[in-house]
Amino acid sequence: MLLLHWDNMGKIELHHVFVMLSCIYLIFSDISINSAVVFLFSSIFFYISFTAGKRLYYLIGIDKENLKINLKKHYNFGIFLMIVGLIAVTSDLIWVKDVPLFNPLSRKFLNVYFTTLSHLFLVGWAIVVASSNIDKKKILLYTIIFSILIMLLGYRTNVLVLLISVGAILYYKNKISNREILKYGILVFVILLGLSILRLYALGVEGNPITSRISLTMSIYDIIFNNFNGVFNGYIHYSAVFSYLGLCNGARTVIAKTLGIYNVSITPTIVGAVIGDYGTLAIIPYFGILGIFLGFFYKLAKDVKGIYLGIYGILFAYTLIGIESGILDIDVILYYFFGLILCIYAILLRKLKR
């Protein structure tokens, strides 16, 4: 009966899942009341902004017929990105001369540029799925196979991005129902749990693979909120970009060193990164702009499909993962900018057609 009721519900959207996951993080954490209230407010404000973005799409009145979507070109572009990503994955494994999945300590020897380029495989496959009519069962089979390939690099995030983005794309193409997306979500959680247990086993560490990570991440956020509120003055997000040019440490490493922790990187949560850089009030413009953009892009992607839906699927995944890790990688930031460019292109094309 519960599954039947689930199928009769409307579409589950990003802002729904964002608030739900944020609440889960709060439930499994032990942080100060003030920081908890701000964290919850951030997710609720994102929810409201996302809804406003959807409304804005209707107010502007995008005509998808004017966009002249060529799904074949989008498909070919996706295949090209997959090839580049596959070459990068192979090169990275050759570079490190080990398999980080089974030896997590070897992950620090991966080539940062190969690793970054390997993410194009995820983007390419998302675009291919969004631009083609491949059978649903084949897509899921290929996705599992590709997940095994990607997880060799030892990053759970990449596997999650692949699984979540494909699930979102199939769901918004109406190829899977509410009931099926629930089952798919459970499968993704089981895979995450398995990878987390494998990582702890390889490191010889004991503990709950899920709640211990949530508790640690939220405690870091709590420390930033109470002791480093606005202290970084934009340096965290500066590091997210310029660390790839060798000008500074990565954003998460900067946070770790500030807290006196060395040889590891630390995830500050998406809220913690913003507050650490710009102060508590910065969550209003940050989540306001992010929510409006993603709400608008969601409606555009759902109507147009192709590369629009492919990129939205990737942003869907990174936004949810960003609750813990923050949006602090240059390639991920570029995906958001690419999505923004697609939105601007659709708006300008409408204006020019008038």
Structural description of this entry:
The protein is an all-alpha fold. It has one domain (2-208, 267-353). Helix content is 73%, strand content 0%. The protein contains 16 helices and no strands. Helix 6 (120-131) runs parallel beside helix 8 (156-172), helix 8 packs antiparallel against helix 9 (178-203) and helix 8 (156-172) crosses helix 15. The termini are far apart. The mean pLDDT is 90. Keywords: Cell membrane, Membrane, Transmembrane, Transmembrane helix. It is found in: Cell membrane. The chain crosses the membrane at residues 9-29, 31-51, 76-96, 109-129, 144-164, 185-205, 278-298, 306-326, 327-347. It is a multi-pass membrane protein. One of its GO terms (cellular component) is plasma membrane.
User: Gyration radius, to the nearest Å?
Assistant: 20 Å
Total discrete domains: 1
What is the SS-derived class? mainly alpha
From the spread of the alpha carbons, the general shape counts as globular
**First and last CA, distance:** 50 Å
Low-confidence stretches: none
Largest sheet: none
Strand residue percentage? under 5%
- Mean model confidence by pLDDT: 90
Number of helical segments with 4 or more residues: 16
Identify the quaternary structure here. Answer: single chain
Helix content: over 70%
The H-and-E topology, N to C, reads as HHHHHHHHHHHHHHHH
Count of individual beta strands: 0
Transmembrane segments: 9-29, 31-51, 76-96, 109-129, 144-164, 185-205, 278-298, 306-326, 327-347
InterPro entries: O_anti_polymase (IPR002760)
Membrane topology: Multi-pass membrane protein
Keywords: Cell membrane, Membrane, Transmembrane, Transmembrane helix
